[in-house]
Write a structure and sequence with these properties.
Elements: E1 2-4, E2 19-22, E3 25-32, H1 50-67, E4 75-82, H2 88-99, E5 105-110, E6 121-127
Parallel strand pairs: 4-5
Antiparallel strand pairs: 1-2, 2-3, 3-6, 4-6
Helix pairs in contact: 1-2
Length: 128
């Protein structure tokens, strides 16, 4: 098992890895929609709105996958968490733009709330 880390994605805020490669798969931890940090050691800031957070979360997912030697077209499963089912269409539009014709298995899970007041959290499993 190999732990994956990249400075191009939001750093973990707890006791976990950005991703783990095991048995030919890459398991990417849930990524929130943080903007890239302005400088080293600065706390990241959430993007404004569900669409912008979905784009930033997917940007982080892509960066972690690339650090693991994988990519978005290799994603087999996606889990999207949203605190309000009313955000579904907005998040789905960004998701469609990002994945294009690639259609991995997916769950969108409405939850009560996400950490830091985020509107989107995305985790993936990819071949890698």
């Amino acid at each position: 098992m190999e732990m994956i880390h990249t400075h191009k994605a939001t750093p973990p805020a707890g006791h976990y890895s950005q991703a783990v490669r095991a048995n030919g798969f890459v398991f990417v931890s849930g990524q929130l929609g943080f903007l890239p940090a302005a400088g080293p050691g600065e706390r990241p800031v959430l993007a404004s709105g569900a669409a912008a957070q979905a784009r930033e979360a997917l940007r982080s997912v892509q960066a972690v996958l690339e650090a693991a030697g994988s990519s978005l077209p290799a994603v087999a499963n996606v889990t999207v968490y949203i605190p309000d089912v009313g955000l579904w269409d907005e998040v789905n539009r960004v998701y469609e733009q990002c994945f294009g014709e690639h259609r991995p298995a997916r769950e969108i899970v409405p939850t009560r709330e996400l950490h830091y007041g985020a509107l989107v959290e995305i985790s993936v499993v990819a071949v890698g």
